[in-house]
């Protein structure tokens, strides 16, 4: 006799569970990457702010035009780095959303297999109970017939 449907579907359920676990790991990695990229952006922005404050606190009076030009050039480079990091954060956010949707899809699939197997098991139990009841009824009927004769 072939395996019940619930047993055959357990193979698919197990595979779906593995796929879900892998998607969850990838999602976790994307969260770590996104946090790291956001942190790096925050560091760059904080550095720019501190450097600018320090420059102005040291007093801009008496500063040479070369020093002012050097400061502006350095700030410009930091601004470029900040813009590049914002783009990196944006890419990391998109990657994270993609990984999140992928995990959600895998999770739904796993839950579908879980529910399907539950239904199959309930159905198989009902069928088995009906067959057992038929056997009991047949035995009782056979026992009654042998008494009558």
UniProtKB/TrEMBL annotation:
The keyword Transport applies. GO terms for cellular component: bacterial-type flagellum; plasma membrane. It is a peripheral membrane protein. Keywords: Bacterial flagellum biogenesis, Bacterial flagellum protein export, Cell membrane, Chemotaxis, Membrane, Protein transport, Transport. It is found in: Cell membrane. One of its GO terms (biological process) is bacterial-type flagellum-dependent cell motility. The keyword Membrane applies. Its main location: membrane. NCBIfam families: flagell_FliJ. This is Flagellar FliJ protein.
